[in-house]
Specification:
The structure is a homotrimer of 638-residue chains. With 638 residues, the first copy, chain A, is of the alpha/beta class. The first copy, chain A, is 29% helix and 20% strand. In chain A, strands 9-8-10-11-18-17-16-13-14-19 form a ten-stranded mixed sheet, with helices on both faces. In chain A, a hairpin with a 2-residue loop joins strand 17 and strand 18. The first copy, chain A, is globular. The model of chain A has no long low-confidence stretch (mean pLDDT 94). At the A-B interface, helix 7 and strand 12 of A face helix 2 and helix 4 of B.
């Protein structure tokens, strides 16, 4: 199991380095990321290089038995490069140019700067980017006529007569062309991916065989990680849930499940997280005792084979000096963060058997970046329908019920899942529509929410009645959208006599074969369907015409799970998360107590518990607040 | 009665056009607006024209008996023009340039673009506009010395020694010169009007006899529609009240009354509105069944002789594809919007007799754009006094009481009105002051609220004690302004023993002849006048030194109406609006039920009801929820 | 006692000037500030001067016996200068250039404009400023290597290889380098001070012996007034507390105490304030009767020897025409502001004996601009800890308890104070740390709140455990910061059995010699210290690990005062403020009733009361609402 953090020795005098290695060994650290922000040290002026200090650092780490994840150092270009190439600085949509003095001050399309990729500046509106955007569009559309068709330029007289007239969606008097905006998001993701690829090509030539990765940032909207993940040898992630958010444990799980899904089930690495506080929120809550460990072991539970932090030693100076680290500003022996980091190192050292094992899921949530981008462009019936809100409204119930779930693209083969959930899929390709239809027809169970199946990849409405590609699948037609104002709630009556509410959105649905599971009660939509179920081929498709309250949603998903034959990983007291990793070498049941109270949980008597190294002596086990047990299950022997 | 909508056939394949005309005929459409955004189609490159498709569209419509309102198509310049003339793009006060990709991306003063006028970019701060602004100022002031006087440039050392030093009010370190800002608003309205005039001159030459209009946008602050209306052959309007706003019915009425007033009583056209939802609010509420019809008939009631929508067929692509239309994305036969549009067409076909009739009003509300602009410039005793809030606080009670009301300029002849209301008139000319004084002196009744009569057209304070031009008229002096914080309320005691409250504003008033109708109760202003009445010449002037609560305001206006001899159009149950149109050919009483309940209303037995085609058989009539009746009154025969 | 206001005769026709002087005499005015915004009048074009009108004004005032505070007039450059030197216009961090049309439109580093200093534009990011910033940095650091060390440029690869690469902190993709930001604040304060110094050098040459000042603006963050005050012959201030703020009386006192402290105890002048309303808040509340007088006499009580207003005569035009003045728009005889100004003149004329006397304080609050700047840079454990909030949380209890207090720099000699308060001192020099330690060691009493002693002047964390320079002094170490969310409160139990709450911030404190006065109760910090006391040398140091509720804070400060032997100036009913000024010529006890009720206060029988001119006949005196008494105390005879 990999363990460690970002290590920036260049920010410290050399005398500290020996102490660093000594303490790393004490904490069980076996991997550190080096030279992430060292360009200006390694190349202090154009063409003048200084690798001597880095050689000394690497030798020292090597002697200490600590492996190195060597960074390319391109995330922050040095001032001398900016001075020579001021045109490499990025430009915002309103023409404002961003400057050096922080990091990531580069235009991804800049020829002078074509090495790296970013989180602060995921797009650039400068003239260089405009030319690159045009080239990208020519690749996508071939002719200007085809671009005119795709962008719908007859609307508002936007027809282009020449490629040179095309520009990025700079600031306009009113709403810009949505397809232009959508293509610019596609282009910007690709432009950064091209930076990564340029680095990758260099590395493959100079260090063949060394695996290459770049940190993802969980649900990061600007980059289509499905495309990116195909270019990574191993998926790695940064995640910083807010401990002050009561949902942070759930969000942490969600991020990990996304990473495992991007890695297509293979193990991944948690590359960055904080031991305690971050520095960039208005108020940066500290993690209470045990939470760092809990979340790290949750990452392992959900498929990580390595757990690292930003960063090893807390900075003295600069914009991140108030970001916690494994080693604090003060004496380590007085620091909870350090003591917990050391203990965690000892825990992780016991988990090598877990490495390489997989998490199996019977449920998939469909999630596409392109649909996310299109859904959240302006000028919709409601601007309040957000992709991640929809996604979490489904995920919450799987998390609470200990049901393992993967994320999947709309075009992925879904045959191996018993249940497929579609919280929202506003934009989709014909291929995706056929895929989802075929999945149900072949016997699958699917749950879909409103405003799905609406536009094609050009963001053109699919005509003929909403949701055009799913009307047969769902057995209904949607005749009108009635978005709801903030605070507006509709009453919903279920066929089984229970009642609930819907908010955010409602629709005028006319069944065309579907069975009504619930209907709106009162108002303009009185007695119209709110939730339906339709038999299609050998399978079943549910449809939700509103956002249900949480209890109703839980009941509905439980019904769909039962219908699909989905079983939870484990059943125990609320607040205890259960995840299973599986391999030919063993089955590992992770039980994670998110509550602040001691909890008694049922276990198989005689199981080996990895963290304590003990065998369970009865059919229950006590988990302390934020405590974790990892049970080797009897049937899991290789 | 005109009926139809915007028609953008260039956004659809030609095969759809035949179907369009067939459905237009089915819906009773007799007028469509064509080619609003077709410049890039009609002139795809500089000097290359293509009118063939437009000819085919016009022929098709003509054969279908559908008239055409042909647009100049200048609202959205094509990309090739922008590429040739990048200097035509508009610039904001902070120097940010706006780009193509939406619409209306032009500087109104651009010589390369001097054809059109706008809503998204009502002003431009670029260098070309600066030169045009200087020319406009030279026209207004003649000498730089006179500009220095008017702008008060001795304040903060802003004295100009040369015209070339003068610029638009670009972003400044702190509050800009208010007269400069005010003149820039005047100039910007005129610069756009000059664009319109340039088009008008062309049209008068090429299509003499064809009436010319440009859509107004209800209470649109940047353009002085009093000036604009003088240049239109027929007044037309766009209006989009929010169905989720409980005041939307009132606001819809207000917009229509403004249009009728701008048209100086002549019929006008509702040129754009939505059948159901718009797309540009955060949440775009749908219209419940019947509301579209109710508001359309309200427009007719308040003087419209035509009712059109944006747009005929809902777009598939582009920024407005989620704006509802007469024809939906899905099958028309399943669309409520289409079914209601068809029914409305049938209704309107019965109202030709109404065309040309007039609405008579005994009450006028004084409303000037220039005073609105000046009032809402920064640096006032309170920035919370807003022109439209003040206006609505008066209008509400006239609307609720079915009292017909016109809007009037402060310099208009007011003799034909029994009652004149002045919600706020911060800025006014000497001529306006004399006009209002003369109106009361000759026997008129006037009600005026605080902070009126304060500055002259240069935004210079009228010295000698507030409100200088009205001190005799009102019989008082205002010694100090005491604006109130949000939530701060003062108690107000009326002479008749009733009590109320005031908020937003209070004043230290000393009567000088006026009678106290109410006084403040407690606090610094204890026992000082809150509402006064003064006999002046043969008339009466009321003054309000605070913003009264709604009930007190209703009582006060009822008293003033009684004093002036103003009678309501009709008296019936609350929630039912009544408006009368009158002509030599007949008198038409519109009764519009805004409530969601069925309502019994009194009618003259034996009246013809136009929509049902029936004669009333008793002295009452049942209006369904959102139902409308149009009664031909016995006395209205020609 | 000086009395008067800003006088802008150039905004009025010459006929008004005679009347001005007559009314000034009537009001007892003896000093006016002239020509503040007269540059464009005095030099209407480059090199063309017109002093004739100013000569006439000065002669007229001289004949009326009114002294003149002659302004340099450089606060608002004339348009012709801008036209000749457009590069003198200031530029914001995002590249937006600010224009003429208001005032203070200049870059402080502009060679074309190097005369003046500002409030609206305290910094400029243009290229000229960049060069000046580099020169300033070379002065501070000598070598680029030293700058790299101080700015911690190894973080995020920001290392500079050449001075020319260094720029101001322009808009960056994410948080800029904090030391760069801090140095830019230092530089900007110094750049404006250099403008002032350039003017001062000219004046010392041309008008030697005439005292020079420039208005401070109370707690104005951009300028380090400690440094500025050393360059002023007399300290003067502008202050505009909001009458609608219930704390405004306290804030007014705070501002005055700061001025007296900046003047190092010498008398100062209140140069600007409003008689009634300002014009630049969203809602500009009027002062109730008596409040203007109360605050003016409060300024005198707290050390002012002069009281002036902005401005003499209210403007007719321009951005400040709604700012109240001594003379109103209307007839003076009907204006409360004028009548009160006249009465105040009469009052002040009785206070010449007070001039030159001093306020003695036994308590000091440590307050440094540099620490303020550093504390409020982004990227902290909590962004909600604000310097002035912390300061007021202490000051409130001294104000309420009539305890005189000075402000002091952290490096000042503190020996003469019995009690030193440190609400927050995030950044401090080694010298300051030694100074505070020495103060307590020698017997002083000190109270310090959390997050003090954290960084050095480079904004580098002081390593070795927080708060490194005060761990011995306080007898504890802070092991972790646990900032609290908005609304989050911790329970605090005091050793004496009382209970309170803490919010905003908490810390994990481990005592190392200190005594626990209170501890947190429940939660992660249960039983950990919240308030401690430590004996150090001959003195005592208190430490607060959270922000206490107001009642707990009052008790704690009362205890510290008792410990230190601090006595209140006077004890009487709540709402009555008491301040004493002292001189060889007399002791003057000011009693100021802030309440809206009449109050009975204890006095020494037989004292002379200056305002009434009467001797007190009993041991109590009645103060009307907002009334003031100034008692000459028996012991104060020279």
């Amino acid at each position: 199991m990999l363990y460690g953090g970002d290590y920036n020795p260049d920010q410290w005098p050399e005398v500290v380095w020996e102490e660093d290695v000594r303490l790393m060994r004490e904490a069980g650290v076996n991997l550190v990321s080096v030279a992430i922000f060292s360009w200006s040290r390694l190349e202090p002026a154009q063409g003048r290089y200084d690798f001597a200090w880095l050689d000394r650092v690497l030798d020292l780490l090597h002697r200490g038995g600590i492996a190195v994840d060597l960074a390319t150092g391109t995330a922050s270009p040095p001032p001398w490069l900016v001075r020579r190439h001021p045109e490499m600085l990025p430009v915002l949509a309103d023409g404002v140019r961003l400057h050096q003095g922080a990091r990531q001050h580069y235009c991804p399309s800049s020829p002078a700067y074509r090495d790296e990729y970013g989180c602060h500046v995921p797009a650039c509106w400068c003239d260089v980017s405009a030319a690159d955007f045009r080239a990208w569009l020519q690749g996508r559309y071939g002719t200007i006529e085809e671009l005119n068709r795709a962008w719908g330029t007859d609307f508002w007289s936007q027809r282009y007569s020449d490629w040179e007239e095309v520009i990025p969606p700079r600031r306009t008097p009113t709403w810009p062309n949505p397809t232009q905006s959508l293509d610019f998001q596609r282009f910007s993701s690709d432009a950064l991916l091209e930076c990564y690829e340029a680095e990758r090509r260099e590395l493959l030539e100079h260090t063949p065989g060394v695996p290459i990765t770049t940190n993802f940032m969980s649900f990061f909207k600007p980059l289509d990680y499905w495309k990116w993940a195909e270019h990574e040898d191993i998926v790695s992630n940064d995640a910083y849930p807010d401990p002050a958010d009561p949902d942070s444990g759930l969000i942490a799980a969600l991020n990990s499940d996304l990473m495992r899904s991007l890695a297509r089930g293979r193990p991944w690495i948690q590359m960055e997280q904080t031991t305690n506080r971050v520095n960039w929120r208005p108020v940066n809550a500290a993690k209470p005792p045990g939470l760092m460990r809990l979340w790290c072991l949750q990452q392992v539970a959900r498929g990580a084979d390595g757990v690292l932090f930003f960063q090893w030693r807390q900075s003295r100076a600069g914009a991140e000096k108030w970001h916690s680290a494994m080693l604090p500003h003060g004496a380590p022996e007085h620091s909870h963060a350090w003591l917990e980091a050391k203990a965690l190192g000892a825990d992780l050292a016991k988990l090598d058997a877990v490495c390489g094992s997989r998490v199996g899921a019977e449920v998939a949530i469909v999630f596409d970046w392109e649909s996310w981008w299109a859904l959240e462009l302006p000028s919709k019936p409601s601007g309040e329908v957000r992709q991640l809100d929809q996604l979490r409204a489904y995920y919450r119930h799987l998390f609470d019920g200990n049901v393992a779930v993967d994320f999947a693209r709309s075009t992925d083969d879904l045959a191996r899942y018993r249940l497929v959930l579609v919280p929202n899929l506003y934009l989709l390709s014909d291929q995706a529509a056929a895929n989802l239809n075929a999945y149900v027809e072949a016997g699958g169970t699917l749950v879909m929410s409103f405003f799905s199946g609406i536009v094609d990849p050009d963001d053109h409405v699919r005509l003929g009645g909403y949701p055009a590609p799913f009307r047969e699948l769902l057995g209904l037609r949607v005749e009108d959208f009635l978005p709801l104002s903030a605070g507006q709630e509709l009453s919903v009556a279920f066929a089984d006599g229970t009642r609930g509410t819907g908010d955010l959105w409602s629709e005028l649905v006319t069944p065309d074969g579907a069975e009504e599971l619930a209907s709106f009660d009162g108002g303009v939509l009185a007695a119209r369907p709110a939730v339906t179920r339709n038999r299609f081929g050998k399978g079943t498709a549910y449809y939700l015409a509103t956002r249900l309250d949480s209890a109703s949603m839980a009941r509905l998903l439980a019904e769909a799970q039962a219908e699909a034959g989905v079983r939870p990983t484990w059943t125990g007291p609320a607040g205890v998360e259960a995840v299973r990793r599986d391999s030919p070498r063993g089955r590992f049941l992770f039980l994670l107590n998110h509550s602040e109270a001691e909890v008694e949980v049922p276990v198989a008597e005689g199981s080996d518990e990895l963290l304590s190294g003990k065998r369970t002596a009865s059919s229950s086990l006590t988990l302390p607040p934020r405590g974790v047990a990892i049970l080797v299950e009897p049937g899991g022997a290789p």
